[in-house]
C-alpha cells in the first residue's frame, strides 16, 4: 500500500498538494492556536485568522509570529514616516494595499483612531475573513490589475507590505499609476520592496548554476529581477512571484509616479526595504 503513495503524490498538482498540506496543518495547529488565545485572554486581542490564511500572508504558520510581526511591521512603517517628518496618527483616510487577513490592519485601530481605515487584496478568503472579523475597517477585493474600487484622491496615506516584492515591472507600473490616482495631492505612501539585503540573501543561498549568474547579471543591468520559479508556485497566480529592486532603479523609475522621499534598506522587519513616496 505504501508504494502507491509516491505515485499518487506525483499525480497531484502543486495546488492539490498545497490544499492537502493546509488541511493537515489546520488540524495540527488548532490546539496550539486555542492555547495561544487562552494564554492571552486578558489582553482582549482582536480575532486572529486560522493557519490556512496566516501562511498565505507571511509564509509562516506560527500564530505568535503572525501576531507580533504585525505590530513590528506597523512600528517599522511608523519609523519610516517619522524619518520623513510624519506621524501615522495625522492621517485621516488610510489604505492597506495588500491587506490580506489583517496582519497589520488589526493594529491600526489602536494606533490610528481618528482615521477611516480601508484594506484591499486579491485574496478572496482572506478579505472575507477580515470583513467578518475586523469590522472597524472596510475591506474590498481587487483584481490582479487596476482599477481599485475607490474614487480618485481618496487617501492621504497608503501602506503596503510585501506586494511590490511579488510583481513584475508591468504589474508594478500599473499599480503605481493606480495608487497615484486614489491618493490626494501631498499624500504619503510607504511601500516595501526586496532591496539589496534581500537580493544578497537570495544569491548567497542559491545554487551555483548558470541561471543564477544570468539572474545576477540581469539585476545589475536592469536594476530589478523578477524570479518566476519560486516557492509560491501552486499557492498564488503566476504573476505573483518574487521581485527584487535596486535603490537606483526605484529612485529613477518610481519618480515618474511620485516624489521619492526615502529608501530604507532593511527598514521592514530587518529584511525588506521601505520606499517612502509623496504624491506631487
Describe this structure in words.
The structure is a single chain. By secondary structure, the chain is an alpha/beta fold. It has ten helices and nine strands. The chain has helices spanning 4-11, 14-39, 51-58, 63-83, 105-111, 124-133, 169-182, 196-204, 210-222, 247-253; strands spanning 93-97, 116-121, 138-141, 155-160, 183-193, 224-227, 242-245, 259-268, 272-278. Strand 2 (116-121), helix 6 (124-133) and strand 3 form a beta-alpha-beta unit. The protein is globular and about 55 Å long. The model has no long low-confidence stretch (mean pLDDT 89).
Characteristic key phrases:
alpha/beta; globular; 7-stranded mixed sheet; 44% helix; 10 helices; 280 residues; 9 strands; single chain; Rossmann fold; two-stranded antiparallel ribbon
Quick summary:
This protein has ten helices and nine strands. With 280 residues, it is α/β, with parallel strands linked by helices.
Whole-number count of domains:
1
Strand order of the largest sheet: 3-2-1-4-5-9-8
The computed structural class is: alpha/beta
CATH class: Alpha Beta
Helical stretch tally: 10
Amino acid at each position: 500500500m505504501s508504494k502507491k503513495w509516491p505515485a499518487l503524490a506525483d499525480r497531484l498538482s502543486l495546488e492539490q498538494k498545497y490544499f492537502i498540506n493546509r488541511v493537515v496543518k489546520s488540524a495540527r495547529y488548532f490546539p496550539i492556536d486555542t492555547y495561544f488565545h487562552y494564554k492571552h485572554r486578558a489582553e482582549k486581542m482582536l480575532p486572529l485568522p486560522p493557519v490556512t490564511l496566516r501562511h498565505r500572508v507571511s509564509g509562516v504558520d506560527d500564530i505568535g509570529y503572525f501576531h507580533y510581526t504585525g505590530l513590528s511591521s506597523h512600528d517599522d512603517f511608523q519609523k519610516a514616516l517619522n524619518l520623513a517628518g510624519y506621524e501615522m496618527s495625522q492621517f485621516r483616510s488610510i489604505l492597506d494595499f495588500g491587506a490580506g487577513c489583517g496582519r497589520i490592519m488589526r493594529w491600526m485601530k489602536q494606533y490610528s483612531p481618528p482615521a477611516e481605515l480601508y484594506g484591499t487584496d486579491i485574496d478572496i478568503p482572506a478579505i472575507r475573513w477580515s470583513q467578518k472579523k475586523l469590522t472597524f475597517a472596510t475591506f474590498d477585493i481587487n483584481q490582479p490589475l487596476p482599477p481599485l474600487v475607490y474614487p480618485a484622491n481618496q487617501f492621504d496615506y497608503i501602506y503596503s507590505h510585501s506586494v511590490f516584492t511579488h510583481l513584475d515591472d508591468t504589474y508594478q507600473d500599473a499599480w503605481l499609476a493606480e495608487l497615484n490616482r486614489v491618493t490626494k495631492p501631498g499624500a504619503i505612501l510607504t511601500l516595501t520592496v526586496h532591496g539589496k539585503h534581500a537580493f544578497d540573501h537570495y544569491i548567497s543561498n542559491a545554487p551555483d548554476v548558470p541561471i543564477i549568474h544570468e539572474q545576477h547579471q540581469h539585476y545589475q543591468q536592469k536594476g530589478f529581477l523578477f524570479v518566476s520559479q519560486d516557492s509560491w508556485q501552486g499557492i498564488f497566480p503566476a504573476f505573483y512571484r518574487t521581485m527584487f529592486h535596486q535603490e537606483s532603479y526605484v529612485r529613477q523609475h518610481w519618480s515618474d509616479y511620485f516624489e521619492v522621499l526615502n529608501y530604507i534598506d532593511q527598514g521592514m522587519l530587518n529584511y525588506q526595504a521601505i520606499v517612502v513616496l509623496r504624491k506631487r
